[in-house]
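Q: My labmate handed me this sequence with no annotations at all. I'd like to see what the chain might look like in three dimensions before we decide whether it's worth expressing. Could you predict it?
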Amino acid sequence: MKNIILSALLLGALARGARADDADKPPPYAPGFKRVTVVILENTDYKTAVKLPFLKTLMKRGATLTNYHAIGHPSQPNYVALVAGSPMGVTGDGRQDIGLYERHLGDLFEAVGSTWTAYAEGWPGHCFRKERSGRYARKHAPFISFLDIQTVPMRCAQIKEAGELDKDVAAGKLPDFALYTPDMDDDGHDTGAAFADRWLAKRFGPLLNDPRFMKDMLFVVTFDEDSGTRDNHILTVLVGDSVRPGAKSGERYDHYSLLRTIEDAFNLGTLHRHDDEARHIDGIWRKQS
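A: Here is what I predict for the chain of 289 residues:
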């Protein structure tokens, strides 16, 4: 009888301990959005970007990360890092293929049955692998560098010419994650930041007022890098119903932080690269009921 009583007391203590441990655990990261669209502009310092008219309206409507940084120079390593958690050995802007078994954000979404699309302006289709086609530049379209995409036509089909976005909005078929890369004019690379800001207003201004696009959406505008400084300080703005309007965060974040935010929000796990050590973006979200 004594052994039975001791066993019962022990089990009760273990159960109470488990409940206490569960109570101490932080709640799941659930900032309130169900879809993400990330737009990447080019080569602009933070101080320049915050003065641009349309970006200023987005900063009032959404949240601003005032201490956000790119991870290097030139452009391509930043694009790859944002979807892979590492530059994956890419150091320049030339054509470079990334190993067949190297995972990326698309793999994580597919593993949980979710959807992703890369919308690229001027994308020629047909698993196009050359560096340029008109104003399209492969260095700004990171998914095509992964061999597990460029060698499989069905997966290449996840890269779409950017005009397909409007069709997907109209059809109610937006993906859970979208990466939108403008061409070399519209991203400001060859035209300057003011041109990119006007393009952003024209291209996404109407969509940001369209509930078919914005329902449950987190819309993110960032830059690949600054004008070439060591600090690499760039503007990142987040817009959506999950974000507190006018919120600002001075915490230091970077492209790995944005990746980790997406991974955590969708419970994807990580790619076990720099995203493992990155902190997800916090302090800007509305409280969820």
